[in-house]
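Worked example 3 (structure in, sequence out).
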């Protein structure tokens, strides 16, 4: 959506390494914002973003207009959302309407660009599972996932990090510390408590701190199958999300 940072550029470099021409779209999608202040404040700097994307290997940088994506004369439908985008009680519960907007714009971009492969980061894990479910059900490009890009202190890179002061950015490291603590736990309920305690002890306001199955994001009772620890928390008016895979115990 713009405000490109090193995490985005890693996606571009990964796409380039796959040996195909790389198209980068930059579009701040109004449909996926449930907070209009967040939409209004989202970074918009297309010329800078285009230069960064090209330096990372993009062959085409496309900055479509609202009319390009949602033309008045064309009905752009919203795909039916899979259960992973409606039932887990994570981003779906805290950002109502968000995933409908994501699904709509992603499907529209797939229809317009016709990619063979689409590269997504793992930072928004639930969004990644939504896209995976969409293409599994309806067809589309192969989805290539890239691990979350992090700053030196472990903080997941995000355009929203620009709103944090240097002191807050260091405090935000607690999100990564919480996830690391969860990975050392011997039970999902213990992991969830350790995450919440870590976040609250560093002054973050917790929205959720949970362990769920990696694909369907269902509650789990042990670590016998792939699972993910997921966090959403607020710090100084900035919402931070992150996740890490949990060890599988056999």
């Amino acid at each position: 959506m713009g405000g490109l940072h090193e995490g985005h550029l890693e996606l571009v470099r990964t796409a380039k390494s796959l040996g195909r021409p790389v198209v980068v779209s930059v579009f701040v999608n109004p449909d996926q914002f449930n907070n209009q202040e967040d939409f209004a404040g989202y970074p918009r700097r297309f010329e800078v973003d285009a230069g960064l994307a090209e330096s990372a290997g993009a062959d085409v940088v496309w900055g479509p207009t609202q009319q390009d994506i949602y033309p008045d004369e064309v009905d752009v439908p919203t795909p039916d959302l899979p259960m992973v985008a409606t039932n887990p009680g994570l981003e779906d519960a805290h950002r109502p309407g968000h995933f409908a907007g994501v699904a709509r714009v992603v499907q529209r971009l797939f229809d317009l660009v016709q990619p063979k492969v689409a590269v997504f980061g793992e930072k928004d894990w639930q969004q990644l599972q939504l896209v995976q479910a969409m293409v599994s059900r309806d067809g589309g490009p192969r989805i290539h996932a890239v691990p979350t890009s992090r700053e030196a202190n472990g903080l997941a890179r995000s355009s929203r990090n620009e709103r944090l002061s240097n002191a807050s950015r260091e405090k935000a490291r607690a999100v990564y510390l919480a996830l690391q603590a969860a990975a050392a736990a011997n039970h999902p309920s213990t992991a969830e408590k350790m995450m919440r305690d870590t976040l609250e002890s560093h002054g973050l306001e917790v929205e959720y701190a949970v362990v769920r199955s990696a694909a369907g994001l269902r509650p789990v009772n042990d670590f016998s199958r792939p699972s993910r620890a997921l966090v959403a928390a607020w710090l100084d008016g900035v919402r931070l999300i992150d996740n890490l895979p949990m060890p599988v115990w056999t």
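Notes: The first strand starts at residue 23 and ends at 25. The chain has two domains: 6-146, 159-246.
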